[in-house]
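Customer ticket, subject: "Can you confirm the structure for Sensor histidine kinase?"

Message body: Hello, I'm evaluating your service for our small team and ran a test protein. I'd like someone to confirm that this is what the system normally returns, since I don't have a reference to compare against.
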Amino acid sequence: MFIKQKTTLSVFMKLFLSFSAIIIALYFLYWMMNNAASKTIQTEIEQSLQSRVHFYHNSLETDIKRVIQLKNEYLHDNDLAKISFSREQMSDYEFAEAILRIKNRLLLLKTSSLYVEDVQVYIPLINRTISPEGYVANPTETEITQLRKSNLTAPLVNWQNKLLIVGFSPELISKDIEPIIVFKVQLSIPNIRSSLKQIDTTNKGGMIFIDHAHQWAIYGHNTPSEIEQALYAYYQNNEALLKTGTFYHQINDERYVVIAENSSLLNSTSLIYFPESDILKPLQNSKTWIWWISIASILILFGFSIWTYRLIQRPLLSLVLAFRKVEHGDLTVSIKRRRSDEFSYLYDRFNAMVSELNVLVKEVYEQKIRSQRAELKQLQSQINPHFLYNSYFVVHRLAKIPDIDNVVRISRHLGEYFRYITKNDRDAVTLKEELAHTLAYIQIQMYRFDQRIHTICEEIPDYCRDIYVPKLFLQPIIENAYEHGLKNTLQNGLVEISFKLADKDLYICVTDNGQELSSEQLQILQDKLSHPNDLADTTGMLNVHRRLQLIYGQQYGITLSRTEIGGLNVTLKLNTNPKTE
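Agent reply: Thanks for trying us out. I re-ran your input and got the following:
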């Protein structure tokens, strides 16, 4: 019979493939990180530009909004109303004073905003147009008619290359009723252009302020550049793009980043554009570095593989063969190396390991015992402070009443309680000592639960008084009955403790008459007790169950059942064989 040997790759090939996979993975990871970083930086740049555009555009919009509000307030000015409706009833002095006040208000409006170039009020009744500088030429009928039509559709009106904010009084004017007041605010196009141009700190971009009704447009230059004309034509034919956001547009083999900020108040959109190459130029350098890293990675891959082949393969093979001998039971194997390097140290430690292996095998059992004892110590230490949570609150309540006699009694019980858990480090005590400690605990709890719960404890059978049991195993079960089984019982609560001997095993039963435990909850507790190695919950009943099994064996511990009156019956099974301390 021929045995077919499994074909394996050489160490060199494995190393080569491993390093290849590592280099490729690192290369791919670097490429992904670089790509992600580029996108992140690009997004941050765009967000920064959007923030700047939003800031300047919002400042412009806020200022113009304030001017519109002032215009609306001035339309209802008392002096304008008097002059418009009751000029004939005013004296010349009153009329002059009213005109002067109107001029001052118009001057205040003009100087209050950087974007206001002039303010005029036309009053048809006196056939005069008032401005901050005095009387100016009246608007023509054609101008008034056109302004009335345009004002119904847009907040900003273009008239003879002037950008105006227009108001009429009364506001709702039919074509058959002439206005009483015509209010015009001329905006400064150079100042608007200068404000928006502050966004471009590189002086390589530009801006366009576009009216959605195509009545006017403000460019970044006095004479629109070719790029601005192309952008205006493109967005004029694509009105859906006139909304807030970032877009990319190709013009004359140059790609531009266009930041749009829409204004529903002004019915317009600000377009700020920058050459993409100038903004994202630093990101292009990273692509060149990827190629250089690729070449360097290949060279490192081949060089490192050859070096590791000569340095590691041969001594590693010797070590593998020695391990195989040990695996087959040969504990006399020994390996040596001529060179003084890490493998030489590894060989020496291997030889020492083999020589100590027999000793370690003998120590395994002892170590297992120590491990179980350490686990037992840990579980017990978790129980020791368990009673601290509530005891001091009871003392506090009694002292506050004050009830000095009961404070003295409970403090004595507390002293006995803590003396018991701290007087020595014994793992096992007599059942008599454990029960005395438990009774001290019960006395303390009686102060806490007052008349709600009554506890009955049988006398310990004489044949069980001096058997050794785990320290602090009974108190958590009693506490579980108080805290969970009878937590909502207001009166007539009952806890009973009884003892029974059967086949040299001692059964301690703790029952309560609580109605809190449902069938589902009982099943959950029974399932947890069936898997004691799951120590996610290392307090209370599960803790005691685990301790009893560690000491007496898996057949001992806690079993649960329901009492005839509906409460919980906890049965602790212990071995009565004498146990030394």
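A couple of notes from the result: Residues 99 and 553 are 110 Å apart (CA to CA). The first strand starts at residue 116 and ends at 123. Feel free to reply with more questions.
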